[in-house]
Design a protein that fits this description.
Blueprint lengths: L1 H23 L15 E7 L5 H14 L3 E7 L2 H13 L6 E3 L7 H7 L3 E2 L9 H4 L13 E2 L2 E2 L14 E5 H6 L11 H14 L3 E3 L9 H8 L8 E2 L4 E2 L4 H15 L10 H9 L3 E6 L3 H7 L7 E5 L11 E3 L6 E4 L5 H11 L5 H8 L10 H4 L3 H10 L5 E3 L3 H4 L8 H7 L4 H12 L4 H24 L28
Parallel strand pairs: 1-2, 1-3, 8-11, 13-15
Antiparallel strand pairs: 3-14, 4-14, 5-6, 7-11, 7-12, 9-10
Keywords: Signal
Pfam families: SBP_bac_1
Protein name: ABC transporter substrate-binding protein
Amino acid sequence: MKALRRAAVAAATLTLTTALIAACGTDPSGPNAQQADGQITLKIWDFSAEQVDFHKTIAAEYNKSNPKVKIEWRSITQDEYAKTLPLAFQSKQAPDIFYWSDGGPMNMGQLLTQQWIKPLHPSGKPPEDFLKRWPAGSFVDGINQSGGQTYGFPFSENLYWGPGYMYLNKKVFSDAGLDLNNPPKTWSELKAACAKVKASTKAECIAAPSKGRELQRIYFALAAGVRTDLFFDLKTGKFALDDPPALKTFEFIQELNGNGYLAPGTNDKNFSRQQFAANQAAIYFDGTWMPSVWKSQGFTSDNYAVAPHPNPDTGATGALSRQHDGNKYWISSQTPHHQQAWEFLNWMTDPDGFFVKEYYQQGFGTLAFTDNKKMVTEPAIQQIMKIAETPGFRVNVPVPVLKCTDIAKSKAYLEATGKRPAGEYEAMVEALVGKKPLAPLASALVRERQTTFENKLKEEAAAGLKVSKECYTFPDWDYTADYGLDKYKR
């Protein structure tokens, strides 16, 4: 059986490699080789399908002022991207610049461990005028800097950008006799609104995708009112899917599903988004990026409203997390065009440059390196900004690497989550589809993660790293308040 599995993996890798070579050309000197006229092709990969035309515009504009550099920007579906990019690195067919955000604040550490990235600047240190484009505190050792070198930069800012918003379909709300100016603010009000939608319209109440990781869209929105939208509790230093707050959130989702308030089926996000845009659902939970997604489908913001996520009836005891997780574009360790990749990212992040102006004109969201108040003109995103500015809606969470600098060298958290990276979603989907309690599935996963995590920390401490579970434990943190820099011992 092992031999068969190895053969299957080898065949899949060969198929991908063949496809990549075909896509990149058949030049025997490699997919990133310089052409006879001196022009190079800089390859960029991401999964922003709604931005394909935008990226073509960006590529054409950059080539005007840099005729020796051709930008080839490739976007594929998010699910396929998670499989294709690792195989591309394995087969030495990786792009020059790629998008990767799965690790959150641990993103850089994960990518360094995998040997996927080079420093932003060939010297390792970008010029000061580049670093000053971001607010103070944006560059942190262990998050986007390591060993005196800078590897990443915040692309998305972390106040407005993120999950947790409730989108309301104006037509369905009107047909159900609901007041858009008084959206559901509590879990009970959400159930009451769904009852009206179900009784008065042919539409579903909530289009909630649940395929693979997609259940996060409703879970994050509802969990934030109870504790946080994180699966790791930074107050106790433990993985937390089996804790009462997480179980309470999931039980409410099960209740909504049992009442027929969630659209039936194990659907992906694209199906659920299309349901909402086709006036077949009243509510969709998701993030700041949705206005651009619907705009690309011809469903503009005059057809929907944006509201905060509802909280438990007893009031919010948690908030959405505000983290150092906006570092998303990276220079590949396999690029032969390090200097050109740096020059493009430097051009892309010019606060007054073409990329920024076009990004906002298209209504794609908010960026970390420019003035969002000045640049945002999309009404839906302006409403999102008002919501996010409400005190307590999104809060700064503790940062372990600021408590223990050696966390930047630790592999404990990555090992704990790496074996089953989608484990929390797998457990929740199994419980939701199977209509059974989450607690046993969650406890098994948490036990596995926590054991790996703590054992690795002990192993690293024995080898000389100054790390422990306490580095991830902040008992003085209030889930509804910012954890300020003054909290860290200096």
